[in-house]
Amino acid sequence: MIYEGKAITVKEIEGGFAQLDFDLTGESVNKFNQLTIGELGEAAEALEKQKKLKGLVVTSSKDTFIVGADITEFTELFAGPEEDLVNNSLKANRIFNSIEDLPFPTVTAINGQALGGGFEMCLSTDFRVMDEKAKVGLPEVKLGIFPGFGGTVRLSRLIGADNAIEWICMGGEQKADKALKAHAVDAVVKSDQLVDAAVDILKEANSGKLDYQARREEKTGKLKLNSMESMMVFETSKGYVAGQSGPNYPSPVEAVKVMQKHAGMTRDKAVEVEAKGFAKMAKTGTAASLVQIFLNDQDLKKKAKDYEKQANQVKMAAVLGAGIMGGGIAYQSALKGTSIMMKDINRDGIKLGLDEAKKQLSKRVEKGKMSADQMGDVLNNIHPTLNYGDFGDVDLVVEAVVENPKVKDSVLRETEDVIGEDKILTSNTSTISIDRLAKNLKRPENFCGMHFFNPVHMMPLVEVIRGEKTSDKAVATTVAYARAMGKSPIVVNDCPGFLVNRILFPYFGGFARLVRDGADFQKVDKVMEKFGWPMGPAYLLDVVGMDTAKHANEVMAEGFPDRMKDEHKSAIDVMFEKDRLGQKSDVGFYQYKLDKKGKQQKVVDESTYDLLKPVVHNSQEFTDDEIIERMMIPLCIETVRCLEDNIVGTAAEADMGLVYGIGFPPFRGGALRYIDDIGLDAFCQMADKYKDLGPLYHPTDGMREMAKAGKKFHG
Description:
Elements: E1 3-4, E2 8-13, E3 17-22, H1 34-48, E4 55-60, H2 74-79, H3 82-100, E5 106-110, E6 113-115, H4 117-124, E7 127-131, E8 135-137, H5 151-159, H6 161-170, E9 173-175, H7 176-181, E10 187-189, H8 194-207, H9 212-220, H10 227-245, H11 251-262, H12 267-282, H13 285-308, E11 316-320, H14 324-335, E12 339-343, H15 347-366, H16 372-380, E13 382-385, E14 396-399, H17 405-416, E15 424-427, H18 434-438, E16 447-452, E17 461-466, H19 472-484, E18 488-493, H20 500-516, H21 521-531, H22 537-544, H23 546-559, H24 561-564, H25 571-577, E19 591-594, E20 600-603, H26 607-612, H27 624-644, H28 651-662, H29 671-678, H30 680-688, H31 701-709
Parallel strand pairs: 3-4, 4-5, 5-7, 6-8, 7-10, 11-12, 11-14, 12-13, 14-15, 15-16, 17-18
Antiparallel strand pairs: 1-2, 2-3, 8-9, 16-17, 19-20
Helix pairs in contact: 1-3, 3-12, 5-6, 6-10, 6-11, 10-11, 11-12, 13-19, 13-28, 14-15, 15-16, 20-27, 21-27, 23-25, 27-29, 29-30, 30-31
């Protein structure tokens, strides 16, 4: 044994070669934590001392090569001085350089995934062989940073600046065929041939058929572009990348600037430029928020896995109410492999549901994500029916009929009578109390909420709502089914609106008050979109539908009359009364017209201003900051109330519910992270400026106590 550690071993193998194997003790995957990086440095030193070695194969004993850096270490690391971040990056780079500079040829055998630092490790060897099912990539921009272990340097020289810019700035995972075509890897083979193929490359390098020194010179030298070519590639890319990423995500553009800056440098100087750029991005609020979101997501996955241990398996599901929502649920279930009954009371409903599923599947076929045969297989997993005849085999039912308590009550009681006594019944209600819906059920312990967000195929969140009598088994089975559908479930306790809608409607309340006080709804939309929301509140109301919004608003007002009941007629009321329901009626705050591709496009409708005049009581001008404050304060305070009322268990779950459920700007990390960034004391002072607007703007006593104690919601 040449070297033995807790993450890395190095041993001599047949042919005079060595094998460096990653196998991090106690972990299901390999990752570059401080331990692994340190051991890689020690392993490199041990290899340098070997006088008779002819080459090195780098492998992984786990199902995946290396998933990247240990992101759990980022929070503390990024909180430190920028200089320390630079030095930390340069220290790691010296270790990677020592692998690259070994006095014999090197090759990496890539299995599973090699992402981030894992792929940068691959790039430090002379050659790369890839399993045909493996993927490689540099996804760091998704965390608000970019590669910091030499990735911008080596990849740009290996596959060309234009390809490297695409790979790094888009942050995608690349399949084996694309990696081979781009010359990021040298061979693609079946998994059982991976190590043998790597050894064959070493043999060819030793015989002189492959010039490994030339490979090194290519990766460690200057980028082969003249000044004109360099300017054209990088200047053009900066504009395009900025347009794709937007102003709130600076790391992709910064990555292009860094590659441009070090293009004329050799490796050792180039990695210094990269390290400084990496540290600069790591100190941004965007990176801090996106790292927090990643950690929150890991927390959600861990909780879901804990629930799954108690779950019954869902082999056959059912959805009641075919429609757009029911069709979306059926599509998602069937796509992910769980057969599903789709019941409606008439054939028109069934057709609507099947058409929705076919539409989504056809899009996948058009994009090359599945074949026509695979589309047929998915459709065969959806079983339309007009009766309950086959419901005896169903393990879990999702009720998705009209949002009316009496209708839901009738359907739920009817369904409970035809399914097995140990089977799970759920409701896709968006606002109605689960306890209220459970009141007339015989087995309320088997009933809970399963709230999907529209459109089902795009929105990752599912709220699993626990009623007073809901059993752990019902919750666990529903969570497991949501996970099987590819969704991120969050378990919440029952209340009107649950978590997301309870928080969303104070945000709409802030919008209604702004319009009442004279704000231009289009300006409010533009300001909030610039703040980072995918759409402003007026546009969002048009998408939600004014009838849906009015109904939900009434439920919220009944549940929380102290702060959500408004005696004044609002802009939402006006739109509803005028039958301007939004996109579903082609007109709401805006008009909606079909473009050449048949997609609805938002068009300004000046008549909206005349319709709103009766509910506009002032003619006040608002700054952008005032609009943001008046919109965000009610949303943030209601999020805190949900945490304090134990509707949601943790700050991480609350923030992820907003990011996944209503598109809260990810680079801001969620409502509670947003408060933390402002500071609780400063937030309370900001809210106090608007106390005359009513209880929606009044911080809780708990918030003021936390402010005095200097506490945060995260960390």
